[in-house]
Write a structure and sequence with these properties.
The chain has 242 residues and is an alpha/beta fold. The chain has a single domain, classed as Purple Acid Phosphatase, chain A, domain 2 (4-Layer Sandwich), CATH 3.60.21.10. The protein is built from 8 helices and 11 strands. The strands form 2 sheets. A 6-stranded mixed beta sheet has the order 4-3-2-1-10-11, covered by helices on one side. A 5-stranded mixed beta sheet has the order 5-6-7-9-8, covered by helices on one side. The protein starts with a strand and ends with a strand.
């Protein structure tokens, strides 16, 4: 049996081909997989579990439910785009919502999973966003109290602001901070980490007090359809064949 990891699909009605590719992946590419972990930003934005149909994402939820009904365990860590995913999503899909920075057992090894944006500590504006919105339950309650139309308008405005911010800062600032990576690895006493967010699939090595640690970065699904698999032969970072 194997375990699969994906991240940063950014599903939306404006890119139906990605949603269809994802549904095909769930149906055709997970034979022999025991667990699927989605490490954030499954959606371009998520404005509440009650808005799935209006966002055109009900078929995706149905496909996820079909997956878990088949016996595959589904786990999800929310990202900076879909942090309003909640209990109804979990109920409708059968997925378990995990905390950011979750340690799992993979074979005989402990592996740290997270979305990855918390590691981008040089991007001060994004870290403010995390504290004020992503990690603020009062903000969540306020946002969900708005009408769906108001939430969509707010999400579109925030997307525009995010795009403008990215155009004004360097790629290095948007990437992870090495000291932050090492700190989190040592905090959880692990020597392997898997995350997404940066859209830069690669395998990196870091020196920690526990020895050399490996950091595996998942890619996005706009250009790569990136996924990571693990079985008795180890890890394999690859892309879907198109």
């Amino acid at each position: 049996m194997s375990t699969a990891f994906i991240s940063d699909l950014h599903l939306s009605a404006k890119a139906p081909e990605i949603s269809l590719r994802f549904q095909e992946y769930l149906s055709n590419e997970l034979a022999g997989v025991e667990r699927l972990y989605i490490l954030g930003d499954l959606f371009e934005y998520w404005i509440g579990d009650d808005a799935a149909a209006m966002l055109g994402m009900q078929p995706v939820l149905d496909a996820l439910k079909q997956l878990t009904n088949s016996g595959i365990q589904g786990h999800l860590i929310v990202g900076n785009r879909d942090f309003l995913i909640g209990e109804q999503f979990a109920k409708k899909t059968g997925f378990t919502i995990l905390e950011d920075e979750t340690v799992i057992n993979l074979g005989n090894e402990k592996v740290l999973l997270l979305h990855g944006d918390s590691l981008c500590t040089d991007d001060h504006l994004h870290q403010q966003f995390r504290q004020q919105m992503m990690c603020n339950k009062a903000f969540h309650q306020h946002a969900l109290s708005l009408s769906i139309e108001e939430r969509i308008a707010t999400a579109e405005k925030m997307r525009g602001m995010s795009a403008e911010h990215k155009s004004e800062i360097s790629d290095e600032i948007m990437d992870v901070n090495t000291d932050a990576v090492v700190s989190v690895l040592e905090k959880h006493d692990v020597t392997r980490m898997i995350h997404g967010h940066t859209h830069r699939p690669a395998v990196h090595s870091h020196d920690t007090k526990n020895g050399v640690a490996e950091r595996i970065v998942l890619g996005d699904w706009y250009t790569q359809s990136s996924f990571l698999s693990h079985d008795e032969n180890g890890f394999n970072l690859s892309n879907l064949k198109t």
